[in-house]
Amino acid sequence: MKIKPLLLLGGVVVLSFNNGYAFTTKSTTENLNVISVLNEKLTEDNIVQLTRITGTVKDKAGLPIPGVSISVKNTKVGVLTDNNGKYIIDAEVGSILVFSFTGFKSQEIRIENDTSIDVNLEEMSTELGTVLVVGYSTKKQSEISGSVSVVTGEKLRDVTSNELSSLLQGKAPGVVVSTASGSPTSGSNIIIRGAGSINASTDPLIVVDGNIGGNYNPTDVETITILKDAAATGLYGSRAANGVIIVTTKTGKAGVTKVDFNSSMGYSEASTGNFKLMNTAQLYDYQSKFYTGLTPERLNNDTDWWNLAFRTGMVNSHTASASGGSENTKFYVSGNYYKEEGTLINNDKTGYNFRTNISQKLSEKFNLSVLLNGIFTKDNYNASGALYDAYVNLPFDPAFNGDLTPVDSRYGTWYGRDRDNFMHTLQYNTSKAKSLNVSADINLDYKIIKNLTFSTYNRGKLVNYRSDSFSDKRSKDGATNNGSASASTSYTNTFLTSNRLRYSNTFGKHNLAVLAVGEIEYGYAESLGANVKNLPAGRDAFSTATDIVTNPTSGNDTYQFSKYLGQADYNYDNRYFAVASYVTEYSSRFGSNNPSGNFYQLGASWIISNEAFFKNVKPVTSLKLRASYGTTGNAYGIGYYAALGLYSISSGASYAGLPGAAPSQKANPDLTWEKSKAANIGLDITLFKRIELSIDAYHKQAASLLFFRPLPATTGYNGVYENVGNVRNRGVEFNLTTKNFVKAFKWETNFNMAFNRNKVLEVNQGRNEVSNGARQPIAVGHDMDEWFMPVWSGVNPDNGAPLWENRVKDADGKEFLSYTSNYNAASRVYTGKSSAPKFTGGLSNNFEYKNFSLSTFFNFVYGNYVYNESRFLFDSDGLYESYNQMQLASGWNRWEKPGDLVTHPKPVHGRADNANALSTRFLEDGSYIRLRNVTLGYNLPTSWLTKAKINKARIFISGDNIWTLTKFSGTDPEVELRTGESYIKYPISRKLLFGLNVSL
Amino acid sequence: MKIKYLIAVAVVSLLITGNTACKKTFNPSTAIDENSALTSEADIETATIGTYALFKAEAYVRSGYFFTEYPTDEVAQGQNSSDDLSNIYKYTPIKTSSHAANFWSSAYKSISAANRVIEAIDDNASLPLRQLKGENLYIRAMLHFNLVRIFARPYSQNPTVNLGVPILKEGLTDDEKLTLARSNVNTVYDFIVADLLKASTLMNQPKSNSFASKEVAYALLSRVYLYMEKNAESIEYADKVINSGRYNLLSSGEYPTYFRGAPDGNKETIFCIRHIKTEDRGFSAIGSMYFSGDASGNALNQAASGWGEIYASKKLYDALNVNPQDLRLKFISPLTENGVVKLNNKITPNAPMYYINKYSLQEGIVNLSSPVYLRLAEMYLNKAEANAKISGKEQLALDDVNKIRTRAGIPILTLAGLATSGKSVLDAVLEERWFELSFEGHRAYDLFRNNRPLIRNYPGTGTSTNQIVQPGDSKIIAFIPQNEVDKNNKLIQNP
Hints:
The complex is a heterodimer of chains A (1000) and B (495).
Chain A: H1 3-15, H2 28-31, E1 50-58, E2 69-72, E3 78-80, E4 86-92, E5 96-100, E6 107-110, E7 119-120, E8 131-134, E9 137-140, E10 148-152, H3 153-156, H4 164-168, E11 175-178, E12 189-192, E13 205-208, E14 211-212, E15 221-227, H5 230-233, E16 244-249, E17 255-270, H6 280-287, H7 305-309, E18 313-325, E19 329-341, E20 348-361, E21 366-380, H8 386-392, H9 422-425, E22 430-449, E23 452-471, H10 476-479, E24 484-507, E25 510-533, E26 547-572, E27 576-587, E28 596-607, E29 620-634, E30 646-648, E31 662-665, E32 674-687, E33 691-703, E34 706-710, E35 719-723, E36 726-742, E37 745-762, E38 786-790, E39 792-795, E40 802-809, E41 815-820, E42 828-834, E43 839-849, E44 852-862, E45 865-867, H11 871-874, E46 923-925, E47 928-939, H12 942-947, E48 952-966, E49 989-999
Parallel strand pairs in A: 1-7, 13-16
Antiparallel strand pairs in A: 1-4, 2-3, 2-5, 5-6, 8-9, 10-15, 11-12, 15-16, 17-18, 17-49, 18-19, 19-20, 20-21, 21-22, 22-23, 23-24, 24-25, 25-26, 26-27, 27-28, 28-29, 29-32, 30-31, 32-33, 33-36, 34-35, 36-37, 37-43, 38-42, 39-40, 40-41, 43-44, 44-47, 45-46, 47-48, 48-49
Chain B: H1 2-19, E1 31-33, H2 41-56, H3 58-69, E2 75-77, H4 85-90, H5 98-120, H6 127-151, E3 163-166, H7 174-178, E4 182-184, H8 185-202, H9 214-227, H10 231-242, E5 269-272, H11 286-290, E6 310-312, H12 314-320, E7 332-334, E8 336-337, E9 340-341, E10 343-344, E11 351-352, E12 354-356, E13 372-375, H13 376-388, H14 394-408, H15 415-421, H16 425-436, H17 443-449, E14 454-456, E15 467-469, H18 482-487
Antiparallel strand pairs in B: 2-6, 3-4, 5-13, 7-12, 8-9, 10-11, 14-15
């Protein structure tokens, strides 16, 4: 049972400035070669000769460690170090002093002639010895049979963001993060080991501090543990088909109170990549080739709408935390302020985060933990469509009048299609949201007898959300309704209690741990929305004059999960490990016939390097084989009442002002949990204590998918949720860490990569495709995200007309390929290109020399194809003269005369040949490699700091998204990888930050 | 002993976790269980409101409107649009039309809801229940009629051979609904007529023009019989409506603001799809494509209140403008600058921006409209067309046409006058229908079912400004939505 305290304390080590891979420690004896003159004190009754020993105990970074226990071996004599790590002990020459402290390796030093013994304690954490939180227990990494990745808080937070998902990108193999928007108010999408579900959610399960769900802020994260295979996800198996991300927040450690300030400030800019819009001269010149309505007055303005819409945004993140405690009470308290201005005007995010984690030993038998977290966020959204306008507004149209007031685009001449000047709108209109997230955990551990512990983990969580948008009567958007506003609020609460009984014992070389859990989760949500009009200028408050635009909406939802599980963990002599678990879980979302699902998981591993026959294989520090198999489930992504036959009574079912009820959902009482079967084999090897490699191969096959089976309209329904369909994901991933230099100059490299292949094996009864005719139809025998569309074959050199492939089969089934300029005759085919990448990964390098540290981090995505949808608008070959156009990317050219071999057809005004309709023409290679972060840090010399009573101070400069290599023609290749679509992209931002970390 | 006791407590508390509140089920707050939806008379009334609501949906009203109106010579698309509505306007139908899919699925959803009410009411039930059954039968008939108009060839072209649409009647099994095939056009029409006749006998309450009643069924029968070329029956049912005393033509004074008041008090409207003030569809309204302006009805530049991309055709405007006093010109609000009609220069030749206001400005809300499906003027014109086709009843036909012309404030027609101008009485009736019922989804059917071509010789999108669509052209009807064909292989696609 010493694992838990180890965990609690192990984390704090990271706080005190270590990258989690302590390896070298100055030898104590080397440091203390000087033999001092003995200070012998002889007293009359002195029979035993005692020597007074003094010294300081420090950690690897040279910081004193308070609370270290120093005892004389085989006696009851012992002392603790004080707040400065100093100690005094009297002991016999020849006796042995034992220095011990949780989280550090104990050291024994024999007293010779010394009176002063300074000790540098070495931390416990080596890779295999790292203690991980895996679900309902903590384990050493060496004991785990499943596939698990760990990202420590320090490694997580190199990039500056308030979103965990964004921070995780590229940090762990098989964890693919993609972001659709560069707005600070939008999150990212995470897929672990490929998408395995069609209609249900593909998001991993988030577990915070031991319970499903919960609140956290990245600043308080101690470690992230990612559970990928069945054996690892075990006890979350019923909801773990998409993997599990376990967030563990920081805790205090016994000893002196530690106070930290972390501050970073900087700015961000939108990245524009290879993308450039035309200016007035370029657009006029281009349009003069095909547009007869072009008038020279258009040359009077040259408005750079992009520059008006984007700005340099400020980024601020400030955190203060205090932690510490005694052997009985430990605490961690922190506050964080985060503010990021979007690179788009009028868009920003402000976040305040408060956390208090307290753990109190009530008695030898009881331990109580209380975790409190409150997060308050305020989002401002651009209320004017400036993003869209930045791409398509014409440079011919002026943004400002002569007196520098914004032009009201509703009146007078305006060439652009949408008659929209966001500079005018933004004078008046707003759109914003705020939310308050609060969670409280109360956990109690009770050691019933030596080997048996009962724990109860309980959480309450509340979320309040409100959003408001306002269109002033003076603005284009608000004029029709004489000023309009919409407001919506929602409230959700979740209560969860998880009660656990754990038995563990050792019988000789047999180690056994058995766990039984009963758990209930109950959730409730309600919302209210109103949309009103007739508001005075500049006032968004509702009043007596306020009229409604649409009927107010309101509703509430309730759901419940409850489960039992059991798990047995066994190992023999730290060589052979086995784990087996069984979960049965109920969800109110499923039908009355099968609301519960049963899941099992098995895992085994063998630490070969612990075998006697392997002891002499010196180059191999450790070697371990792992294997697992099991079933996992998924209950998310469908409605709360997906199994019920329903008549809607919402306003959509009303008519002529009377309430009505209309059939809205077909019943399926058989609906049950989505299940997938997953197998994993893995190998962990460490060579020369310097090279660590983990390789995993997996096969994950989802059957009985939660699938919205489309029904013919004559049934009266769009479809019904059923458990059909089968998708397979196979892949290989590896994680390699090498310590290239370990002396004064340190260089460590981490490289991870993951390859995933996806195939749809079955959709439903006899059908081949989920969404027939869609551009990603989800078809049997194909990658789930494969693109289906006409194949672009370039431009007919004779006349500049577009060409597509036309594949015709003759009576014998022989296929002939010809080319057609008739879009409707073009064959729609599976392109063999998918929006899912062939592989993804990350590469980080950390260098340290004296007080300097430098880290670089690249992430890469390869082999995915992005449909650059907005080229329809701004690469339209003359179809739209009223949208601005992009400049031709390098290698592109337009047809001008017969014989031209080009990429772009002859521009034709208002063309009807569908040249820019869906085809592989706009399907672009989305591969990229990006320098996601560079950080250069400098530790201020201790000599400067001691006078100011500062333990440690570090300054750094950090850059995010500094450089990107890609062929993609848009502003940025990164898209949400499931939809694979780039449309009016909010580009990700390039950030430059300056920071300071101070530890008192 | 104490320890054993404690272990027992721990185990029990584990079990309690699982068992208390274990396996609770919850119901949504915005929906009710289908098993309790039709148990009382009040429930059935509520469910009938739901049947109406399902075809009040944008997917039905808006997408359906595009099919019935855009392929006519009444409107001009003034600029290119990426919306599927362009395909409908240009006669370039596609199998994956989003509007076709919307319309098909929302129509059958409403029919399916109607069937559940029809199944729940015995023909000998109480008067209020029989009224409700009649309303659902009417709705079912109306929806089948609109489906067969959009997806099948006119009744006048081989109705016993050409495929109509699937007939979704009550009492079908789940398997039958999954594999329902298209019936022939005449079978669908016979089904529609039977439903309407039965509905008219069941309905006994004079409900407002937002709801079905006996006369509403009669009015639709008049139209359906006209399409079936059963002229005597068309006249008979038009007369039943006219003589019911429930409706009057609005006066010339009231007429220009026909579509701006609340529909309930309108004496001419027989049936409209009621949209209340809180059902303003904004830029997604039918009127948004036609008009952009303020709440007083003043035309403003595009995108002020609506897209304003589809205009009254120059052809229609010029024809109406032969009589500049014609009140029907009031339904057109040209966008002018210094007194001159503006041109949309996004296509060449430019289309004049003749905004249409028939679907705007209800109750002072710019984009609010309750599309009128049946009104008394049509009854007169149905009668006129039927009479025009019956030898010897030409003057009767002109009498009804002249009622409409008089109300519009333009000179009446005489047989002699027509003879000198070389027009037939049917020519005159169809032209009057064009003028009077413009933008109301009649024109293309009126031409094609009478075996006449549709001629577009005015500026609008498409490659030609001189487009002639023949009644036998395969493109005059929509493809069955491809996704429906995929889900039900019994559905045979149109050629």
